[in-house]
Design brief:
about 35% helix; single chain; globular; 5 helices; 5 strands; alpha+beta
Length: about 130
Amino acid sequence: MIRVFRSVTIQKLFKEEDLNDLINDFRKYKESGFCPDYFGRDVAYDHPHTPSLILQEDVRHVHLSEFGAWPVRLMQFNRTSDRHLVYCQGAIHRECYLLITLLSPDAHEQATVSNVMRKIGEQAEVFRMKY
């Protein structure tokens, strides 16, 4: 059974009801592989500028649509945006996930800011040491 945890950071970014909806959609996505109509490409941060802690803790992000549902025939891999749901998976308990933050707007630019990524990496590290 998939367990989804929420960081303090992400709790500050969403209304409780909206965050619960996001968590439920994320859980269903990880359990079934079914991609909600506003979820896009799901990839690790693995660019040349990515800090080593982010790589080590396997921090990933899902592109979220900025304007409602993606076109039905658009493949998940081609669904890209500048709005990223950042998360990590447990190192030992692979059924556990932590939703860390939402990078928006300018997610790609924010992902190059050392301080932003360091804080994300630290949260992932603490979570993965426990799970």
